[in-house]
UniProtKB/TrEMBL annotation:
<keyword id="KW-0460">Magnesium</keyword>
<dbReference type="GO" id="GO:0016779">
    <property type="term" value="F:nucleotidyltransferase activity"/>
</dbReference>
<keyword id="KW-0548">Nucleotidyltransferase</keyword>
<dbReference type="InterPro" id="IPR003607">
    <property type="entry name" value="HD/PDEase_dom"/>
</dbReference>
<keyword id="KW-0547">Nucleotide-binding</keyword>
<dbReference type="GO" id="GO:0000049">
    <property type="term" value="F:tRNA binding"/>
</dbReference>
<feature type="domain" description="HD">
    <location>
        <begin position="284"/>
        <end position="399"/>
    </location>
</feature>
<dbReference type="GO" id="GO:0046872">
    <property type="term" value="F:metal ion binding"/>
</dbReference>
<dbReference type="Pfam" id="PF12627">
    <property type="entry name" value="PolyA_pol_RNAbd"/>
</dbReference>
<keyword id="KW-0808">Transferase</keyword>
<dbReference type="Pfam" id="PF01966">
    <property type="entry name" value="HD"/>
</dbReference>
<dbReference type="InterPro" id="IPR032828">
    <property type="entry name" value="PolyA_RNA-bd"/>
</dbReference>
<keyword id="KW-0819">tRNA processing</keyword>
<keyword id="KW-0479">Metal-binding</keyword>
<dbReference type="InterPro" id="IPR043519">
    <property type="entry name" value="NT_sf"/>
</dbReference>
<dbReference type="InterPro" id="IPR014065">
    <property type="entry name" value="tRNA_adenylyltransferase"/>
</dbReference>
<dbReference type="InterPro" id="IPR002646">
    <property type="entry name" value="PolA_pol_head_dom"/>
</dbReference>
C-alpha cells in the first residue's frame, strides 16, 4: 500500500521513529485486512475501472481496517454517477438495492459481504437543518474533507489488478495514531453543517476509546443548542450506538461536559447532585456510571436494555431527595419517580413501546430486592418478584448485583450473599412450580362455564382474583380453585 499525502507533525527524532514504526504496523494491518477481501473487491474495482471510473474504500471501513476491526459492511466512494454505479452493481452483485439514490448511494451484497457505494459528494448546507442540498463532486479530496472526523476521512483506492493506494489528505492516520477525534475543517463549520456530528463525537469516544481534540470540545460546548436541529429519531440512534460502545461512560461524560446531555437527556446530568455536608449519599451520577460498568461486566453480549436501565436506575433521586431534622438524607420512592421520568424521556426520543416498558420496569423494580434483606420473604413475595419481572428477571438479577458499589467489602459481600439466597429461593420454588408462567388455575372459558356468565368485565375480575390467589398460595388443585372462585363470586354478589 503506497502512502500519499500522509502527514507527520512529530518533531522529536526519537518520537518520529516510534511514530513511523507504528504507522508502518498500521499500514501492514490495513493492507492485510483489505487484501483478505481481494476476491470480492478486485473484480468490483475492475468493473468500475473498465467503465472509466475509480473505486475507493472509504471512511469508517478504512479506519476499522487500520484498527484490525474491518467488518462485513464496507463503504465505498466513486466518481461514477449513481446510474453508472447501478449498472455495474447489477452485473456484479448477488443483490442490489436503492439505499438513497437521490443522495448517490446504492447498496449490494456479494458472498455475504454488504457493500455501500456513494458518488463523490460536495454538499451545500443551509445552516437550518442537517439535510444538505445534494451536490455530486468530482474529486476524492473534496469528498473526504466534507466528512465528520479526520479518522473517517481516509480512503484506499483499489485498482483493477488489486493494487492498493492510500489517500489521507487531512491527516487522519496521524489522528488514529494519537487516538484523537478532530474535524477536517473547523469544528464550528462542521457542526454548523451537521449538528449530529457532535453526538457522533460522543459515540466514537465510546466505540473507539479516543479522546476529543480541545477545539472540538470547545465548539461542542458553544454550539450545544444546535443539537435541537436534529430529529428525535436520529438522536436516539446515536445514543444507542454510544451506549453499546466499549466505553459508554466516556461518551456520556463528553455529552454532560459540553452541555449536550442537558438538552437531549437532562435526567442524566441532573444526577450530578451536590453531596450534603455529612456525605450521606454518593455522587449519584458517578455511582450510576459505575453501576452501568458493573452491569456491562456481567454481559455475555452488549445489552441495550440493561445498559440504559443501569445508567438511569437512580434518575429519580434528584426529585425525591429529602433531609430529616437530624440531617439524614433519603430518596423515598425514587424508583417510582425514576421509572416515570425514564418512560417520559424515552417516549420523547421515539423509542419503541417495548423498549420504554422494559427499561422503565427495570428502574421501577431495582429497589424491590432490598425488602428481602429486611426479613424472610414468603413464597408469595418471591412469586410476585418473579411475576413482576417476567422475562426481565435475568436482567433484573444483573442490575441489582451491579447496584452494589460500596467500598465496604463486608457490606458488599453481605448484599451479594443475600441476593444469592433470593436466587436460591426462586430456583427452589421454580423446581416445584412453573414460575415463568404464573397463570390462574382456571382459564377464561372455564370461569364462564363454572359461573354461568358470558364474556365481559366480570370474567376479567374473576381471572385477576385467581391470579392473585395463585401468586399467594401457589398452584391449587382444580376442585380447590373452583371452590375458591365460587366463594369469591358469592361474596362479590352479597356485598
Amino acid at each position: 500500500m503506497n502512502s500519499q499525502d500522509a502527514q507527520n507533525h512529530v518533531q522529536d527524532p526519537g518520537a518520529t521513529v516510534e511514530v513511523e514504526t507504528d504507522r508502518l504496523a498500521l499500514m501492514a494491518r490495513a493492507h492485510q485486512a483489505v487484501g483478505n477481501l481481494s476476491e470480492i473487491l478486485t473484480p468490483l474495482a475492475a468493473a468500475f475501472n473498465k467503465k472509466g471510473h475509480s473505486l475507493y474504500l472509504v471512511g469508517g471501513s478504512v479506519r476499522d481496517a487500520f484498527l484490525g476491526e474491518l467488518g462485513h459492511d464496507l463503504d465505498f466512494t466513486t466518481d461514477a454517477r449513481p446510474e453508472d454505479t447501478r449498472d455495474i452493481l447489477d452485473a456484479y452483485a448477488d443483490v442490489v438495492w436503492d439505499t438513497g439514490i437521490a443522495f448517490g448511494t446504492l447498496s449490494a451484497e456479494k458472498h455475504g459481504q454488504q457493500i455501500e457505494i456513494t458518488t463523490f459528494r460536495s454538499d451545500v448546507y443551509d445552516g437550518n437543518s442537517r439535510n444538505p442540498e445534494v451536490t455530486f463532486g468530482d474529486t476524492l479530496e473534496g469528498d473526504l474533507i466534507r466528512r465528520d472526523f479526520r479518522v473517517n476521512a481516509m480512503a484506499v483506492e483499489i485498482a483493477a489488478d488489486g493494487a492498493l493506494t492510500f489517500h489521507d489528505p487531512v491527516g487522519g492516520l496521524d489522528d488514529l495514531l494519537l487516538q484523537r477525534l478532530d474535524t477536517p475543517a473547523t469544528p464550528e463549520q462542521s457542526f454548523n453543517d451537521d449538528p449530529l456530528r457532535m453526538l457522533r463525537a460522543a459515540r466514537f469516544v465510546s466505540q473507539l476509546g479516543f479522546k476529543v481534540a480541545p477545539r472540538v470540545v470547545s465548539a461542542m460546548t458553544d454550539m450545544a443548542s444546535q443539537i435541537t436541529r436534529i430529529t428525535a429519531e436520529r438522536v436516539q440512534v446515536e445514543l444507542d450506538k454510544m451506549i453499546l460502545g466499549k466505553c459508554p461512560e466516556d461518551g456520556i461524560d463528553l455529552m454532560v461536559e459540553t452541555g449536550i446531555a442537558e438538552i437531549i437527556y437532562p435526567e442524566i446530568p441532573a444526577m450530578k447532585m451536590t453531596q450534603d455536608e455529612h456525605m450521606q449519599h454518593k455522587d449519584v451520577y458517578a455511582h450510576s456510571l459505575q453501576v452501568m460498568r458493573q452491569a456491562i461486566d456481567q454481559e455475555e453480549e452488549p445489552d441495550l436494555v440493561l445498559r440504559w436501565a443501569a445508567l438511569l436506575h437512580d434518575c429519580g433521586k434528584p426529585d425525591t431527595r429529602e433531609f430529616s431534622e437530624d440531617g439524614r438524607v433519603s430518596f423515598h420512592q425514587h424508583e417510582v419517580v425514576g421509572a416515570k421520568l425514564v418512560r417520559r424521556r424515552m417516549r420523547k426520543l421515539k423509542y419503541s413501546k417495548h423498549m420504554v416498558s422494559d427499561v422503565g420496569q427495570l428502574v421501577f423494580l431495582h429497589m424491590r430486592f432490598h425488602g428481602f434483606g429486611e426479613g424472610q420473604w414468603t413464597d408469595s413475595a418471591v412469586r410476585r418478584y418473579v411475576a413482576d419481572a417476567g422475562e426481565l428477571l435475568p436482567r433484573l438479577h444483573k442490575l441489582v448485583r451491579a447496584d452494589c458499589t460500596t467500598r465496604n467489602k463486608r457490606k458488599a459481600a453481605r448484599l451479594q450473599a443475600t441476593y444469592d439466597h433470593l436466587v436460591e429461593r426462586i430456583e427452589d420454588i421454580a423446581a416445584r412450580e412453573d414460575l415463568a408462567k404464573v397463570r390462574p388455575d382456571l382459564d377464561g372459558n372455564e370461569i364462564m362455564e363454572i359461573l354461568g356468565i358470558p364474556g365481559g368485565p366480570q370474567v376479567g375480575k374473576a381471572w385477576n382474583f385467581l391470579k392473585e390467589l395463585r401468586l399467594e398460595r401457589g398452584p391449587l388443585e382444580r376442585d380447590v380453585a373452583i371452590a375458591e372462585l365460587k366463594a369469591w363470586w358469592e361474596g362479590e354478589h352479597n356485598e
